[in-house]
Amino acid sequence: MLMPNWMDPEYLLHWMGNWALWGTLLVVFIECGVLFPILPGDSLLFAVGLFIAQGTIDVPLWLACVLLTVAAFLGNVSGYYIGRALGTSLFRNPNARFLKPKYIEQTHEFFERYGPRALVMARFVPIVRTFITIVAGAGRMDPKKFFVWTGVGAVIWAPGITLLGHALGNVEFIHKNLEAALILLVLISLIPMVVEYFLARRRNRNNAADAPKHAAPKHPVSNGQ
Questions:
Q1: What is the Cα–Cα distance from 31 to 42, expressed in whole angstroms?
Q2: Which of 32, 110, 141, 153 could bridge 136 with an S-S bond, Cβ 3.0-4.6 Å?
Q3: Is residue 2 one of the residues assigned to a domain?
Q4: Could you give the angle at the alpha carbon of 200 between the alpha carbons of 205 and 100, nearest 5°?
Q5: What's the mean pLDDT when you consider all of the chain?
Q6: Residue 183: how many CB atoms within 10 A of its CB?
Q7: Spatial separation of the C-alpha atoms in residues 128 and 125, rounded to whole Å
Q8: Residue 212: how many CB atoms within 10 A of its CB?
Q9: d(Cα 154, Cα 149) in Å, to the nearest integer?
């Protein structure tokens, strides 16, 4: 692939050999909350499903899906408690690339706007799926609500992409063009982020257009004096 070897899921799985599934569990756990968001989560899950279909990874599909779901859930829980324990100390540098102070404030607004489904949506967005758990913890999101909805996201995300890879694992075109398929998967996973970006711009334009009407000063009523 056009990425470093450690970002190439096919290379990683071959390199890990008999430990491919266990190595994948570790990668998923780290990417889902332990402050290292640049890992091949989506494409690695897809490749695991594909390799299981081809017999390269000799593990029952159901067991792989269960273990990957648990790894994704525990990664998010770890990220949540890292954010909760360290609090705003993670967000002191205004020039930081990811952990900016303004994100603490915006987290509450984010969850208020999208509700619990934000934790499910974030699963499918690289980098965001790591970042949102840290911010949720630092923002003191209700633990019960976090556990329930991050669990729902884990159940949909990890088995969903793994099953997709398994379903397409024996398709000759996918097998011959695995690199292109993995790149396409990464691009598709970025669609929610792009859509939200343009929706946010649209909301900002609408708010800016309405601002003068709301901000217009009230003129005192003349009493004729």
A1: 10
A2: 141
A3: no
A4: 115
A5: 76
A6: 15
A7: 6
A8: 8
A9: 9
Residue where the block lists tokens 């292109």? 180
Count, residues in the chain: 225
Q: Which of 99, 107, 88 is nearest to 35 (CA)?
A: 99
- The total number of structural domains in the chain stands at 1
Q: Please, what's the largest Cα pairwise distance for the chain?
A: 93
Report yes or no on 145 lying in a domain. Answer: yes
**DSSP line for 93-161:** -TT-SS--THHHHHHHHHHHHHTTHHHHHHTTSTTHHHHHHHHHHHTT--HHHHHHHHHHHHHHHHHHH
Residue type, 26: L
Give pLDDT tens digits for 69-111. Answer: 999 999 999 989 988 888 767 777 777 666 667 666 666 666 6
Q: How far is the C-alpha of 145 from the C-alpha of 174, rounded, in Å? A: 39
Which residue has tokens 């099953």? 163
Domain with 155, as residue range(s), is: 16-194
Rounded to whole angstroms, the Cα distance separating 97 from 81 reads 21
**Residues 186-208 pLDDT 10s:** 666 666 666 766 776 777 677 77
Is position 122 within any domain? yes
The winner for highest mean pLDDT among 53-57, 75-79, 209-213 is 75-79
Per-residue pLDDT of 12-46, as tens digits, reads 787 888 888 998 999 889 888 776 656 667 788 88
Query: Taking Cα atoms as reference points, which of 45, 34, 71, 1 lies closest to residue 169?
Result: 45
